[in-house]
Design goal:
cilium; two-stranded antiparallel sheet; T3SS_substrate_exporter; T3SS_substrate_exporter_C
């Protein structure tokens, strides 16, 4: 039986950036901390094991490599859609 350790990575993106930047990445207890901090700060969490594996190979503070642009853009668009839906719901109240 193999034990799978939790993995996590955090990205930061601003329209002024050339590409998203990896701000944190880790496995095990560090991954738990990254997820905990995101949750505390109401940062959306997207579960994607394959992407997490790839982001763990990017140095902290570095831009993501070009080969990840498309998949990360999909994640960012997903998060934007979630935020838009939350904002629409809160404006209805």
């Amino acid at each position: 039986m193999s034990y799978k350790r939790k993995k996590a990575a955090a990205l930061k993106y601003d329209t002024g950036y050339e590409a998203p930047i990896v701000t944190a990445a880790g496995v095990g207890a560090l991954a738990d901390k990254i997820i905990e901090k995101a949750d505390e700060n109401k940062v959306p969490i997207v579960y994607n094991k394959e992407l997490a594996d790839l982001l763990l190979n990017v140095d902290i503070g570095s831009s993501i490599p070009e080969e990840l642009y498309e998949v990360v853009a999909e994640v960012i668009n997903y998060v934007i859609d979630i935020d838009d839906n939350i904002n629409k719901e809160s404006n209805k109240k």
